[in-house]
């Protein structure tokens, strides 16, 4: 990734409070093929942070978020992962990866 072309993306989702422990457990052992697909499709420095009330904060860096989302959506492993993760979230009509709305960055310190 080139320093000046990197997009920093942050998004919020809400995990159901009664599913927090299971959600944390599932992310202790993310499938190797899912991890590889994320890397291959341009998801770098990807982190998820979870509060005790279920607020999930996601952060990643990529050259092109729209292209990275599209490439990931075309993988078979992502379809399986999203189907398994969907029941963990509140307020989503579709897959979790389709409900990620990036926040607007208002400040960054290099």
Instruction: Give the terminus-to-terminus CA distance.
Output: 16 Å
Determine the CATH topology.
Answer: Alpha-Beta Plaits
Chain-averaged pLDDT: 93
In terms of structural class, how would the helical and strand content be classed? alpha+beta
Residue fraction in strands: 15-25%
Identify low-pLDDT runs. Answer: none
Quaternary class: single chain
| Global shape | globular
CATH architecture: 2-Layer Sandwich
Radius of gyration: 14 Å
Describe the main β-sheet briefly: 3 strands, antiparallel
CATH class: Alpha Beta
Main sheet: strand order = 1-3-2
Task: Give the count of structural domains.
Answer: 1
Helix content: 25-40%
Number of helices: 4
Give a description of the structure.
- There is one protein chain.
- This protein has 110 residues and is α+β, with helices and mostly antiparallel strands.
- The chain has a single domain (7-102), classed as Alpha-Beta Plaits.
- Helices cover 32% and strands 21% of the residues.
- The chain has 4 helices and 3 strands; from the N terminus they run E-H-H-E-E-H-H.
- The protein has helices at 20-26, 32-40, 65-73, 76-85; strands spanning 7-14, 44-50, 55-62.
- The protein has a 3-stranded antiparallel β-sheet, with no helix packed on it.
- The longest helix is centred in the last third of the chain and has 10 residues, at 76-85.
- The chain is globular, with a radius of gyration of 14 Å.
- It starts with 6 loop residues before the first strand and ends in a 25-residue tail after the last helix.
- The model has no long low-confidence stretch (mean pLDDT 93).
